[in-house]
Design brief:
single chain; alpha/beta; Helicase, Ruva Protein, domain 3; Dna Topoisomerase Vi A Subunit, Chain: A, domain 2; 5-stranded mixed sheet; 7 helices; 7 strands; elongated; binds zinc ion
């Protein structure tokens, strides 16, 4: 049936490349787009293009920011620049922000070291993090997902920090092993942050 609809097939091929979009939902998502009126489709495409053109990474903390705007974290004078929370991705940053328990700066690594998935230290913002650790930085709090890769990444970075006087801490246990911070409730993450342990 789909073979007789080449344009639908083409749309689905693009949708299939969207990560986190379950393949079982593919037909529903395709139908949703086909039913949108022209104006909504225009708005959708415009929003996508605008976001792509105007959203960039802060070159210090690697958090998304609007182009030509100052980073809302790095330039916020009310935040404590002596403590940096290191996260894997932007999602974990949002989780930490939701706890309202952290008022320092952030550093987004862009993932974890994972030889199986072909991700090495050079693919992450590790050198940039080490370079940020100057005399004004007292503590790095690693808020990683509780996975072996997350732990190995912290160990790798801790070795790189050798010779620098900075405290390295991790979220307290209490976050289930193997879990993604995104799916842990706000209070548990806030508590794990408050009870963080030295690495
Ligand atoms: Zn920044």
């Amino acid at each position: 049936m789909i073979d007789r609809l080449p344009t639908v097939k083409k749309l689905m091929r693009h949708l299939q490349q969207v990560p986190f979009l379950a393949s079982k939902n593919m037909y529903r998502v395709t139908s949703y787009f086909l039913q949108l009126d022209d104006e909504r489709i225009e708005q959708f495409c415009r929003a996508l293009k605008e976001a792509k053109a105007r959203v960039v990474l802060c070159q210090a903390c690697f958090v998304w920011q609007e182009q030509n705007e100052q980073c809302s974290f790095c330039f916020d004078k009310s935040r404590d620049s002596s403590i940096i929370c290191v996260v894997e991705t932007w999602h974990e940053l949002l989780v930490i922000e939701r706890t309202e328990a952290f008022r320092g700066l952030y550093h987004v690594l862009g993932g974890v070291i994972s030889p199986l998935e072909g991700v090495g230290p050079k693919d992450l913002k590790i050198e940039e993090l080490v370079a940020r650790v100057t005399s004004g930085v007292v503590e790095l709090v690693f808020a990683m997902n509780q996975t072996p890769e997350g732990e190995a990444t912290v160990a790798f970075i801790a070795r790189k920090l050798h010779g620098k006087t900075v405290k390295v801490s991790c979220l307290a246990k209490g976050i289930p092993i193997g879990s993604n911070l995104e799916f842990v409730d706000r209070l548990t993450v806030g508590k794990a942050l408050a009870d963080r342990k030295l690495f």
